[in-house]
Amino acid sequence: MFSKRLKNLVPYVPGEQPQDRKYIKLNTNENPYPPSPLIDPLLHEYNSGRLRLYPDPAFVALREKIAQRYGIEKSQVFVGNGSDEVLAFCFYAFFDSLEGELLFPEFTYSFYPVYGDLLGIRYKKVPLAPDFNIDLSLMLKNEPSCGVIFPNPNAPTGMLLSLEQVKTFLNGYRKDRVVVIDEAYIDFGGESAVGLIREHDNLLIVRTLSKSLSLAGIRIGFAMGDSALIHALFAVKDSFNSYPANTLSQEIAGIAVSDTLYFERVVEKIIATRNRLSKEMKQMGWELLPSSANFVFAKKKGFHGKNIYLRLKERGILVRHFNIPGIDEFVRITIGTEEDTTTLLEEMRSCF
Ligand SMILES: *Cc1c(COP(=O)(O)O)cnc(C)c1O
Predict the structure, then answer these.
(1) Chain centre to alpha carbon of residue 250
(2) Atom of ligand 1 at shortest distance to CA of 109?
């Protein structure tokens, strides 16, 4: 009854979305603040008659807004149902392990090996540097490879590579294979590599509206790169589902992407809270990796990560623990509101 393919699937395990009790939810890097207030009028006045028709399969209005915001052309923008879908299409379109493996960091977004396995792409996990950052020079030594993918900042470490480091890597890496940089968290303190897509036609930047734009619920992500790469992503999309982004989501995304003022205020608040949380946790004896994301990756001597996770959960606070040797001492804690953070720090003081 079931295919052989199905038997070999090892699915990604998303963070818990508990429906039973109310937690302070700091486990899936959602934004604690609402999205742009300019979205509400659209929803209140929405004419449901518009939902009768299929959405625009070419996402034209949204791609124009994204292009405008980042100073690029519409032909350099692709849109998908969350950046997870965009990433899956990238694996399909660009990575082919006939001539070497796909490279990604040893500890990184755990969807990458899932897509690799799903599509039969061989991959190699490249160890992190001793400071836990991504080791781009080690990536360059791992030839032949059939492409590279890494998040910047990395997840779940939160550590950032500078634009200079990214440039050096791109200059040293082969030009005939695609480099995907997953910039899910770049807005929280990093410098985007989107400005490099003109010089590097093998560079693709993937973004999501789920984190900095507070819109995890609408499932919109996008990619920016040379129009040939974008063309390839459209070919994959149109071989799978012509309409991955629904009408309402496309319109909401267009509003959010254009409201830069509100966005900047939200990001500033999250960075300020991250700095406060990091400082107070360090004072309590926690060890934290330097974060440029909307979460911190932290451990405390004498406690296993699983133990920290369980104790906080009992107290109504959800954080994320990864049962992976090498990082299993850590927990990843999403930056919440100032109020959530005060509660979190109080609970930490009393139980660790
Ligand atoms: C959250 C996250 C994504 C997925 O974002 P969606 O757009 O919600 O699918 C992709 N990459 C990384 C590294 C993430 O942390």
Answers:
(1) 19
(2) 13
184 alpha carbon to ligand 1 midpoint, in Å? 6
pLDDT tens figures, 211-235:
999 999 999 999 999 999 999 999 9
d(CA 18, ligand 1 centre) in Å: 19
Q: What's residue 5's pLDDT?
A: 87
pTM: 0.97
Structure tokens of 227? 């129009």
pLDDT confidence of residue 256: 98
**pLDDT score recorded for residue 15:** 85
Structure tokens at 27: 């486990």
208 in contact with ligand 1, CB cutoff 6 A:
yes
pLDDT, position 18: 86
**Distances in Å between the alpha carbon of 151 and those of 244, 292, 343?**
23, 12, 30
C-beta contacts of 306-314 below 8 A and 24+ residues apart: 308/352, 311/351, 311/352, 312/344, 312/347, 312/348, 312/351, 313/23
Closest Cα to atom 11 of ligand 1:
184
Closest among 253, 111, 234 to 182, alpha carbons compared: 111
Instruction: Name residue 225's beta-bridge partners.
Output: 204
Nearest protein Cα to ligand 1, atom 14: 184
Per run of 10 residues, the mean pLDDT along the chain (length 352 residues) is 89 86 94 98 96 98 98 98 98 92 98 96 97 97 95 98 98 97 98 98 98 98 98 98 97 98 97 98 98 98 97 96 96 98 97 90
> Does ligand 1 have an atom closer than 6 angstroms to the CB of 112?
no
Which phi-psi region, left, alpha or beta, contains residue 189 (left: φ > 0; alpha: ψ -120 to 50)?
left
Residue with tokens 């540097």: 129
Pocket test for ligand 1, best of 182, 213, 214 (most atoms within 8 A of CB): 182
Instruction: From 292, 265, 266, select the one nearest 278 (Cα to Cα).
Output: 292
